[in-house]
Amino acid sequence: MSNRILSLLSVMALAGTAAAEVSYEFVPNFITPPPGKETIGDGHGEIAVDSTGKIYVSVQDKDPALAGLQVYGKDGKFIKTLPLPPSLHGFVIRKLADGEHIYAAVLGEQKVIKCNLDGTVVMEIPTSAFPAEQRDFVTVSKSDEADPKKKTTIASGVKIADSKTEITLKLADGTEKKITKEKGVGAAGGLRLTNCDVAPNGDIYVVDGYGRSFIFVFSAEGKFKSVFGGPDKPLALANAHKIFIDTRFEPARVMICDRGHKRMLHTDLAGNFIGEIATEMRNPSSASFHGDLMCVAEIAGNVSVWDKANKRVADLGTSPAMTNTPGIPPQDWKQGIVTSPHGITFDNDGNILETEWNKWGRVLKWNVKK
């Protein structure tokens, strides 16, 4: 047999072995909710695991006993709730030279916080730290009298003044436009921060995922450094729901869940486009890394696993129908089938935990088969 054929067979065998090794089994009823509760509470956030294996889930429930950052043991049993803001839409737990911390985007307050694992806030990046060009960008429109939901755009720009009688915008061409506040006229926009992550050098990356999809870079001390992305070329992002620092590569990359375009892409740490990872997805919403693998929460009804070569190696919990709603009640949940995956993480053993956009709150787990 020729060396060429032997080499080909070796590659095929290795590929088959790798594929066989990446398989998972669903763990029914893994999470034990807080005492006296049937579910964990209104979920529209993230899930992460610390270096000891504890599980953290953000919950935005109106019940103060549930709202904040819930902490569970490796066995899925409830431990406590950290009294952090309920609108932690996206957060990560990272261990750097200064220790292990929670970095979170507070959607309801448009700020970023850095916390100890006990919930003590040690640093904050306030709204005022973001550049005005993105922070104060608004669209002024007028509602139709017959149909208030129907709006006509008047102008978009950076809001530089807002009095009782008029709004003043700085337009893209540098000119100013004054708009009278007549009946039905209003401004909407500004920051809508959805996630953050930390580069190996300590720089903090923050995405305006529910706003205009700009990505901001701050120093480890919280000082603004740069901004990239947004709705225009070259990246042309739309609902860049969450971003993550992909340390599978050297140098590390920024991985963007560009949900509005149903794709994932990589940039370098300066924001220069590297390439698309995947397209035509079920709206990628979050991701996590373990070894050479990446797991992805696709909010329209799927969890996927990818290798470092951007090959899909597994799909988990796939819903037969395209889903994307928080309104599926517990009695309609099906074991091992997702509804609206919103947050996801690997644990320290390579198992996958996923949290859903769901009014009642839902966490699913798949164990990796050894």
Describe the structure.
- GO terms for molecular function: zinc ion binding.
- Residues 1-20 form the signal peptide.
- The protein is mainly β and 370 residues long.
- The chain folds into 2 domains: 24-131 and 190-368, TolB, C-terminal domain (Neuraminidase, 6 Propeller), CATH 2.120.10.30; 137-189, SH3 type barrels (Roll).
- The chain is built from 2 helices and 29 strands.
- It has helices at 3-21, 132-135; strands at 24-27, 47-49, 55-59, 68-72, 78-82, 88-96, 99-106, 111-115, 121-125, 137-143, 151-162, 166-170, 176-180, 185-189, 195-198, 204-207, 214-218, 224-229, 240-246, 253-258, 263-267, 273-278, 284-290, 293-298, 302-306, 312-316, 341-346, 352-356, 363-368.
- A 5-stranded antiparallel sheet has the order 13-12-11-10-14.
- A hairpin with a 5-residue loop joins strand 25 and strand 26 (312-316).
- The radius of gyration is 22 Å and the shape is globular.
In short:
Residues 1-20 form the signal peptide. With 370 residues, this protein is mainly beta. It is built from 2 helices and 29 strands.
What's the level 1 CATH class of the largest domain? Mainly Beta
Give me the CATH fold name of the largest domain. Answer: Neuraminidase
Structural class of the secondary elements? mainly beta
**Using only CA atoms, what is the Rg?**
22 Å
Q: Helical amount among residues, as a percent range?
A: under 10%
SS strand fraction: 35-45%
Total DSSP E strands: 29
Mean pLDDT: 94
First and last CA, distance: 34 Å
Runs with pLDDT <50, length 5+?
A: 1-20
CATH-level-2 architecture of the largest domain: 6 Propeller
Q: Strand sequence of the main sheet, in spatial order?
A: 13-12-11-10-14
- Assembly state: single chain
Largest sheet: 5 strands, antiparallel
Number of helices: 2
Q: How would you sum up the global shape?
A: globular
Number of domains: 2
CATH superfamily of the largest domain: TolB, C-terminal domain
